[in-house]
Amino acid sequence: MIPNGYLMFEDENFIESSVAKLNALRKSGQFCDVRLQVCGHEMLAHRAVLACCSPYLFEIFNSDSDSHGISHVKFDDLNPEAVEVLLNYAYTAQLKADKELVKDVYSAAKKLKMERVKQVCGDYLLSKMDVQSCISYRNFASCMGDSRLLNKIDGYIQEHLLQISEQEEFLKLPRLKLEVMLEDNVGLPSNGKLYTKVINWVQRSIWENGDSLEDLMEEVY
């Protein structure tokens, strides 16, 4: 209950207007107190804004002995375009990236511990996945250590295993785990094709990678 004579006003445009002005200040380099060096590219920003969006940068800024000076953070393993996408997101809450850049944005978000962005990028990749790209996506998810993404991709691979086994990338898998389930509506010819693909994979791993048959059999069941 608001007491008599109490003034209360909420400016619905204030947040949107302030965010837009902050981003304009960033782009013009005004009042910026952090410099990001990304593979030779310099990007200016405001420490408080980045600290709110990135737990990784918050930890760096929080441990900075000169909290009133300009912070310098260097990244040699991130795509500058992807980092720029994340900077725009930090200032506008809008994530915009070309489809070719999504994996790099994911990698940058992982580095900066921006979990929401990482999840959105992962879901986007899943929405674009098909039998031609799923193995490549699985390799990416494995490199990123994303168990959620891996489980979803593995489910897709299991559902489309026969079609995927026709792809050249199937034989290049570093490891393989198969569950071959014979159901009443699954004919032996289809499974015969699948068994042939497994044998081809085993042969390739032995001849080209020097793997032992005993080790490979632990991966195929």
Low-confidence stretches: 178-189
Main pleated sheet: 3 strands, mixed
| Overall pLDDT metric | 82
N- and C-termini, Cα separation: 67 Å
Strand content: 5-15%
N-to-C SSE string, H for helix and E for strand = HEEHHEHHHHHHHH
How does the overall form come out from the CA principal axes? elongated
Q: Note the total helix count.
A: 11
- Structural class comes to mainly alpha
Protein name: BTB domain-containing protein
Domain BTB: 32-99
InterPro entries: BACK, BTB/POZ_dom, SKP1/BTB/POZ_sf
Keywords: Kelch repeat, Repeat
Would you mind describing this structure in some detail?
It is a single chain. The protein has 221 residues and is mainly α. The chain has helices at 14-28, 47-53, 55-62, 80-92, 102-111, 115-128, 134-144, 147-159, 161-164, 188-209, 213-217, and strands spanning 34-38, 41-45, 71-75. It has a 3-stranded mixed sheet with strand order 2-1-3. Strand 1 (34-38) and strand 2 (41-45) form a beta hairpin. Helix 5 (102-111) packs antiparallel against helix 6 (115-128) and helix 7 runs antiparallel to helix 8. The protein is elongated. The relative contact order is 0.07.
